[in-house]
């Protein structure tokens, strides 16, 4: 087996383990592999993103992405750049736009959108750092930057940059700096405490 294929398979397994690790309801790898639509959408994205790099395969990549959307309720544009161990919890209604960039160990809850505000070409979607959590129903719009470890509250609408380790809530979202005593790492490690 080629080294690239081996590494690709490792990335898929890391995605699976990220879902298993972050959802206490998950019992076995088999259960997660078969029953988590957010994971299925990420897996399909891992393939379509590679297809997207080949100009001749872009239409096929879009179609495969739309088929995954029909099956999972999660729409990830093949051109988006997603980091490792992305966990999309509950799946349904998540949209990730073409020029979005997502760091490692990010959690997106259902109904969250990394979308654009304008119809212009070029960078028009958000950039999320590592360990960001985007709450259910939250919209992050435009080419804004969300720093490492930031949390976006459920149903927030983010249209401005969010500093690292900050919490942004409301419409439009305002930053509430997390108290020094708050266990930021634990919140990110185990977002299922919200459920
Ligand atoms: C934003 C969030 C991370 C904050 O959590 P936290 O650090 O524990 O903060 P607190 O609950 O102490 O709330 C801090 C303040 O923000 C407000 N707040 C919290 N979440 C909010 C939200 N989603 N929208 C608006 N205000 C919110 C609280 O009312 C509180 O206001 P106050 O200081 O005036 O009393 C969390 O509330 C959240 O929304 N997480 C998303 C979880 C999710 O989507 N779960 C889906 C599971 S299926």
UniProtKB/TrEMBL annotation:
Entry's Gene Ontology cellular component terms: cytoplasm
Pathway: Amino-acid biosynthesis; L-cysteine biosynthesis; L-cysteine from L-serine: step 1/2
Biological process annotations from GO: cysteine biosynthetic process from serine
Catalytic activity: L-serine + acetyl-CoA = O-acetyl-L-serine + CoA
InterPro entries found in the cross-reference section: Hexapep (IPR001451), Hexapep_transf_CS (IPR018357), LbH_SAT (IPR045304), Ser_AcTrfase_N_sf (IPR042122), Ser_O-AcTrfase (IPR005881), Serine_acetyltransferase (IPR053376), Trimer_LpxA-like_sf (IPR011004)
PROSITE patterns: HEXAPEP_TRANSFERASES
Pfam families registered for this protein in UniProt: Hexapep
EC id: 2.3.1.30
SUPFAM superfamilies: Trimeric LpxA-like enzymes
GO terms for MF: serine O-acetyltransferase activity
Entry keywords, A to Z: Acyltransferase, Amino-acid biosynthesis, Cysteine biosynthesis, Repeat, Transferase
Stated family: Belongs to the transferase hexapeptide repeat family.
Alphabetized NCBIfam families for the sequence: cysE, EPS_EpsC
Entry protein name: Serine acetyltransferase
């Amino acid at each position: 087996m080629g080294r690239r294929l081996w590494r690709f398979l490792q990335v898929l397994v890391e995605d699976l383990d990220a879902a298993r690790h972050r959802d206490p309801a998950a019992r076995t790898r088999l259960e997660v592999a078969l029953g988590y639509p957010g994971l299925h959408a990420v897996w399909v994205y891992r393939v379509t993103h590679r297809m997207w790099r080949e100009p001749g395969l872009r239409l096929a990549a879009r179609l495969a992405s739309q088929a995954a959307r029909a099956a999972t309720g999660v729409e990830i544009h093949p051109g988006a750049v997603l980091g490792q161990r992305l966990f999309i919890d509950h799946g349904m209604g998540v949209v990730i736009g073409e020029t979005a960039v997502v760091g490692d160990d990010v959690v997106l809850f259902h109904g969250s959108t990394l979308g654009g505000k304008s119809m212009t070409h070029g960078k028009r979607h958000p950039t999320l750092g590592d360990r960001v959590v985007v709450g259910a129903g939250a919209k992050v719009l435009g080419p804004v930057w969300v720093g490492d470890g930031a949390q976006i509250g459920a149903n927030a609408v983010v249209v401005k940059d969010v500093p690292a380790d900050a919490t942004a809530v409301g419409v439009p979202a305002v930053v509430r700096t997390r108290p020094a005593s708050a266990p930021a790492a634990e919140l990110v490690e185990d977002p299922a405490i919200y459920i």
